[in-house]
Amino acid sequence: MNRIYILFTLAVAALLISAEVLRAQEFDCEVTINDRQISDTSYEYVSELVPALERYINENRWTDDQFEEYEKIKCRVRIVLTGVDDQYNFSAEVVFSSHRPIYNTAQESATVIISDNNWTFHYPRNKSLVFDALRFDALTSFIDFYMYVLMGFDYDSFSELGGSPYFNRAMEILELAQMANHPGWARSIGSQRNRYGLIQDLTNPGYEELRSAIYQYHRLGLDQFTMDEESARAQILDALRRIRQNRENSSRGFLFDLFFDTKYLEIVAAFMDGNSQIRLEAYNVLTAADPGHLSEYERLRN
Which in 103, 154, 232, 281 has the greatest CB count within 10 A? Predict the structure, then answer.
């Protein structure tokens, strides 16, 4: 009986540990790969990268926080392979996106959509994906970088500047990559719309007003819609005013464009049922803050 009891106890403990590990996972991520530009059948094994990346992202523990199943960050990774050489070095373009729930609704809000057209990595057959925060790997470190960026945007939407620890971790990966002298991670002359410019801006105090407004937009605006629509719209409008002001005082527009490229349709939808005055106020703010989507904002004047 004692042996049976011990085995039963160990089995229960194992289940509890397993449940705790599952509860600690932060991401519910879907990965797709388009390899149509690679015609050589000897590289067909690259399809194995899809389940490998999903396990790597979804089973890794990225924070010390405990996540319930419904709290997991939903994300998508869309990879288009653009080339490969005979040393199994692949080039790719990638789009990362993440979503968060809107409080007290069945709806979700996209927190950020980011594209990266300059990824190169080594992926021979049977390569294992291993998380190592202290060593740079062109495949896993790239994924790590963007997972921390997605996590930073998600945390920023729930608490004011809550994403700072994760943006800082992404910065550490950038520094490892630069020490390894790997292409795609260095500061480029001209455009700063790359990994270097992204994380430099996200960790720059000059953009904290934008990040704080992102919290206001989500928690005090979107999440309050089911309780008080007018108050929620007022909060969103105030957040947009803050973003416009921050943009006017900033030298680069990368983060602002990321925000509006992700949110412009949602913003219009939030104001469409408002009264004519708040629609016009929103229109005036948006045309100054985000002229790139002017045709969509015209709907607020009708």
Answer: 154
